[in-house]
Amino acid sequence: MIETNIFTEITANHYLILSAVLFSIGMAGVLVRRNIIVLFMSIELMLNAVNISFVTFSHYFGKVDGQVMVFFVMTIAAAEAAVGLALAVAIFKRFKEVNIRFFEHLKG
Amino acid sequence: MSHQVLIAILLLSPLVGFIINGIRFRSANYLLAGSIATGAVAVSFACAVMLFVELLGLPAEQRRLTVSFFEWIAIGNFKVNAGFVVDQISSIMILIITGVGALIHLFSIGYMHHDKGVTKYFSYLNFFLFNMLILVLGDSLLTMFVGWEGVGLCSYLLIGFWFSDSAKAAAGMKAFITNRIGDAAFLIGIFILFTTFGTVNLHELNALAPAALEAGWLGTVGLATLMLFIGATGKSAQIPLYVWLPDAMAGPTPVSALIHAATMVTAGVYMIVRLNPLFVMAPNTMMVVAIVGAATALLAATIGLTQTDIKKVLAYSTVSQLGYMFLAVGVGAFGAGMFHLMTHAFFKALMFLGAGSVIHAVHEEQDIQKMGGLKKYLPITHLTFVLGWLAIIGMPPFAGFFSKDEILWQAYSSPRGHMLLWAAGVIGAMLTAFYMTRLLALTFWGKSRVDKKIHPHESPFVMTIPLMVLGLLSVVGGWVGIPHVIGEFLGHVPNYWESWLAPLITKLPSATMTAHSATEEWILMGSSVTLAAISAVAAYIIYVKKEGVAAKIAQAAGPVYKAVDNKYFVDEAYFAGIINPLLQASYNLWQYVDVNVVDKATYKITEIVRGGGFIVRSLQNGNMQQYAMYVVIGVVVALSYMLVG
After folding, report:
1. C-alpha separations of B422 from A14, B189, B405, B536, B603 in Å
2. A6 and chain B: CB distance < 8 Å anywhere?
3. What is the percent of chain B where pLDDT is above 90?
4. SS3 letters for B104-151?
5. What is the pLDDT of residue B167?
6. Which of B617, B620, B621, B624 best tests the A interface by mutation, with the highest count of A CBs <10 A?
7. Do A100 and B624 lie within an 8 Å CB cutoff?
8. Domain coverage including residue A44
9. How far is CA B262 from CA B170, B382, B580, in A?
């Protein structure tokens, strides 16, 4: 088995760890932040963390499937951002603030 | 037409009449409704006659026309067809039902013409006939039970026909509930027979009955027949379930004539005659039947002595006459029972219709103390009523003489008869002669006690024609069953009735048969007729010649009179012994068990559910970040499970 230096040679593990860290940061953001804009940024962060995993495995296994999937994710993310931001604008117009608790007013 | 088609038309014609009148039940056009209903029954009668003629053309052993319309019940090996059979017994029954039924329908046109619910009335009447025909034609106990329940329903509907009067509605319910008690026993009887013999087909049951002796099923057969008989006591108003029939007089009078005198109440007798091979296998049951019949004949006759309502007298008389029929079948004289069933249908329907004509004439008055002297206002009704009276008190050569005398003779001479049964029958016949003469005298003879404002009038022809036809039948109806001794005397007149029924009637085991001479029969016959005649003359003297004697006798009898006048307090005893304890028990069950146990248990369950809902509801509070947290917790738990496990 060939010894590898984790500080000199970048392997798939490095990418996966980065992905996990980014995902966790994003998740923490979704759970604790109240500002809708920041929430969207956090969600974006999670999606992109997943994209990194896709690309990593795609490269590792030498298949393009994962990279194709990334494009899907980016498309969905853009659509989601469009809808989400429209909601944010509507909330802002009504309450002059973009706090997530205002969505509770949507309860019947 | 083939007999299948005839039976189908016979059955369906009243049903069609019921449907047509039932759909247009709000109509007050009595002529149209009555014509439809009467026409429907007349068609049935025509079919019945044609079937009878077809039977006559067959050799005696093959007189059995069957039809099966469809398979009604099929569970595994257990199969019941919607099958019907016309044989010697049921052909007579359908002739009586449709013939007397048609006459009573015709009478109803006149009697009910002022009633708003006349169309509904005729639809019920047609439906009753449909069910009655199913009862007598059904070839299995289950088919019979359908009709058995159907006639009970129609009886309830027609007794409570004027249901805005709560007493009449209550009478309907009393009839229905009393019948239910009998029906429960009837069902148990069917179940026992099915588990024992594995079939409910009447023909197969009768064929298997002799084998029961070898199979050692006599106890079971005895129990089953006893249960069937209890069912019959409900439907045919025998002790102890007779109490509903007098109250059933709350219904329109033609209904009393049709259902509560001529047809439905005889269903129990018909059932026993139909199953006579089974009953012969159960001597103990037959003894019970005979004793109950004789006791009912006596008890009801004594109550009839004191009643003042014209219909109540006839009602107790009906109970009493049904007692005679049960006495007959109880001593094994099934043919005589059927014979009395037929003659009774003629003369009792006649008397009820006559009573209806009287009630109609004196403006709904039913108290015979407020009648009297109606002879000159109602000549036709009076004449026909006299014919019915002569028939019921058993004067030769009227119909009742032959049938009643046959029963009394059999009660004495049959291997299962007894001197005491005969004595009860003769005393009953004397009482019958007395109260019937009293009824006739108080209604038609003597001085008029009718309210001065009322001007009695003879009924229209539509009502008197049925009376005349039934009057004729009350005279000649018995001539088909002239006993051998008289037949010999008149020069070899055969007993058509006996030979007609003979193939379906099981002969009693004749080991203990003692020879009875013709002289004996003449003596018994003569004594019963003489006693009845003396009794009738006595009643005539007491109620017409010497007014006031009746009251003195009543006073002299004191407590006995009081007991009889109050119908032996049987209703009161039933209330005290059964109904009130049941009501009290139900009340206690409601107050303690239902409120404290059932209600509280359900409240507890709702509280638990509501409490659980309150807890779970706090999880779903609309805070999306909290939802996201649940997802994360779930993922963490799942991942750690995968990593650890």
Report:
1. 118, 29, 10, 20, 65
2. no
3. 61
4. HHHHHHHHCCCCCCHHHHHHHHHHHHHHHHHHHHECEHHHHHHHHHHH
5. 92
6. B624
7. yes
8. 12-106
9. 23, 20, 33
Residue with tokens 């009395």: B340
> Letter for the amino acid at B69?
F
The structural domain count of chain A equals 1
Contact B106, B33 (CB under 8 A): no
pTM for the full predicted model: 0.81
Res. B567 pLDDT band, cuts 50 70 90: confident
Q: Which band of pLDDT confidence, cut at 50, 70 and 90, is reported for residue B143? A: very high
Residue A1 lies in a domain: no
Of all helices (H) and strands (E), which one includes residue B74? strand B64-75
* Residue of chain A with shortest Cα separation from B620: A107
Residue in chain A closest to B636 (alpha carbons) equals A24
Query: What are the structural domain ranges in chain B?
Result: 282-506+517-563, 571-644
Asked if the structure places residue A48 within a domain, the reply is: yes
Residue closest to B340 by CA, chosen among B500, B481, B499: B481
CATH of the domain at A52: 1.10.287.3510
Note whether A93 contacts B: Cβ–Cβ < 8 A.
no
**Residues of chain A neighbouring B622 (CB-CB closer than 8 A):** 103-104, 106-107
Q: Are A103 and B625 inside 8 Å of each other by CB?
A: no
Which residues in chain B have their CB less than 8 angstroms from residue A107's CB?
Answer: 622
